[in-house]
Design a protein that fits this description.
The protein has 146 residues and is of the alpha+beta class. Helices cover 29% and strands 23% of the residues. It contains four helices and four strands. Helix 1 crosses helix 3.
Length: 146
């Protein structure tokens, strides 16, 4: 099973020891991700995947934005953390906009990103408004390399 969807703007970015859930600069990115993920839940009727998961992230941005926007690994971590519920230690510090516009107490697709076994990410030069495409898919845990 899989789900794929587009999200306007930049993905959430984790960039250090402080939680992105507290940062004003990341609030809209988290809200955009969680709103589009909720729409995808409604389409497929599944809130959480149970087995090992894969995530594909493709960020489309103008060439002059693409290199200065941040490291790809920080975006994939931000997306994984943004789909999980916010850590209980962070709940009292969460940005007010996030609390009002999306439910940080609930995971979407990913209960724990330790379940993510496969990650594919890339930035693609694009002559238009920045957006990203996200695919979350279950991996057959019985398959293995021989």
């Amino acid at each position: 099973m899989f789900v794929e969807f587009e999200v306007p703007g930049k993905p959430p970015k984790k960039d250090g020891a402080n939680s992105m859930w507290r940062k004003d600069s990341e609030a809209q990115n988290i809200i955009n991700l969680r709103k589009e993920a909720r729409k995808a839940v409604e389409k497929i009727g599944v809130d959480l995947f149970s087995g090992p998961l894969g995530i594909e992230l493709t960020i489309y941005a103008r060439i002059n934005e693409i290199e200065g926007m941040g490291d790809l690994d920080n975006f994939i971590t931000g997306v994984c953390d943004g789909l999980q519920r916010a850590h209980p230690n962070v709940m009292r510090y969460i940005n007010e906009r996030i609390l009002k516009e999306c439910n940080p107490h609930q995971s979407i697709f990913v209960v724990d990103d330790a379940k993510v076994y496969d990650i594919r990410a890339r930035k693609v030069p694009f002559d238009g408004e920045m957006y990203y495409w996200l695919k979350v898919f279950e991996i057959d845990s019985r398959s293995h390399h021989e």
